């Protein structure tokens, strides 16, 4: 084997090792945290289930999964973790999907409820209505999403999804569906109103991991 091949191999090995050394917490109080753990592992990092305040200590970032935001909120309060998550998010990246995106917002409507306020978003719960509440579609993300991950459209699974009605000036929309933002970044944080953990494409999780 030529020396350069060995060097290339060594470089890609150390890149993989570097990624695997990144511990990503997945809030595991309620919702589809198992699918997110698997998606984090597929994206090359190491998932850690977060159930207690001390679980937040050794992780580089956190995923708040989909599920039922009112239930998650109640459990967070019971575990004494609501304030701790807000504090965590002031230092480290959080990726919220669906119910997780609702928790990340500044304002929640329909009905209103408390949220972490880590991103300047106004979110309407169950915005697509109750009857036709779930769908699978393909998104055409922004050029920036492609540049930072890889080209190609993105399969998106929506389940009783919220609609992001307002995005503040510091937030950046990376993908939209029917004119509404569905993948939004603000500084270290990321939210999706769809479920990237339910499709084999790991670009959205890779994008989050690249922010750690
Ligand atoms: N409708 C749920 C809520 O309001 C979110 C749905 C989901 O996370 N799939 O919390």
Instruction: Calculate the mean pLDDT score and round it.
Output: 94
CATH class: Alpha Beta
> What is the N-to-C order of secondary-structure elements (H for helix, E for strand)?
HEHEEHHEHEEEHEEEEEH
Number of helices: 7
Number of domains: 1
> Strands across the major sheet, in which order?
2-1-3-4-12-11-10
What is the name of the CATH topology?
Rossmann fold
Describe the structure concisely for a colleague.
The protein has 212 residues and is of the alpha/beta class. The protein has helices at residues 3-20, 33-42, 69-78, 82-89, 99-104, 143-148, 203-210; strands at residues 23-27, 46-50, 61-64, 94-97, 107-109, 121-124, 134-139, 154-159, 163-167, 172-177, 180-186, 189-192.
Describe the structure in your own words.
The protein is an alpha/beta fold and about 210 residues long. It has one domain: Rossmann fold (3-Layer(aba) Sandwich). About 30% of the residues lie in helices and about 30% in strands. It is built from seven helices and twelve strands. Strands 2-1-3-4-12-11-10 form a seven-stranded mixed β-sheet. A three-stranded mixed β-sheet has the order 5-6-9. Strand 10 and strand 11 form a beta hairpin. The N and C termini lie far apart (about 35 Å). Glutamine (GLN) binds next to helix 5.
């Amino acid at each position: 084997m030529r020396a350069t091949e060995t060097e290339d191999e060594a470089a890609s090995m150390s890149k993989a090792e570097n990624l695997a050394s990144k511990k990503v917490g997945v809030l595991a109080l309620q919702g589809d945290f198992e699918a997110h753990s698997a998606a984090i592992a597929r994206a090359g990092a190491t998932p850690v289930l977060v159930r207690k305040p001390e679980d937040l200590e050794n992780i580089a970032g956190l995923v708040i999964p989909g599920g039922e935001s009112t239930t998650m909120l109640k459990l967070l309060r019971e575990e004494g973790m609501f304030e701790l998550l807000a504090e965590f998010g002031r230092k480290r990246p959080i990726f919220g999907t669906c119910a997780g995106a609702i928790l990340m917002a500044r304002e929640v409507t329909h009905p209103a409820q408390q949220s972490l306020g880590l991103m300047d978003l106004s979110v309407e719960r169950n915005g697509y209505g109750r009857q036709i509440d779930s769908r699978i579609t393909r998104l055409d993300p922004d050029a920036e999403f492609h540049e930072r991950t890889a080209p190609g459209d993105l399969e998106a699974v929506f389940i009783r999804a919220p609609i992001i009605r307002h995005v503040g000036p510091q937030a950046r929309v990376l993908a939209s569906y029917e004119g509404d933002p569905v993948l939004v970044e603000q500084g270290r944080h990321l939210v999706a109103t769809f479920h990237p953990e339910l499709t084999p494409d790991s670009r959205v999780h890779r994008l989050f991991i690249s922010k750690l």
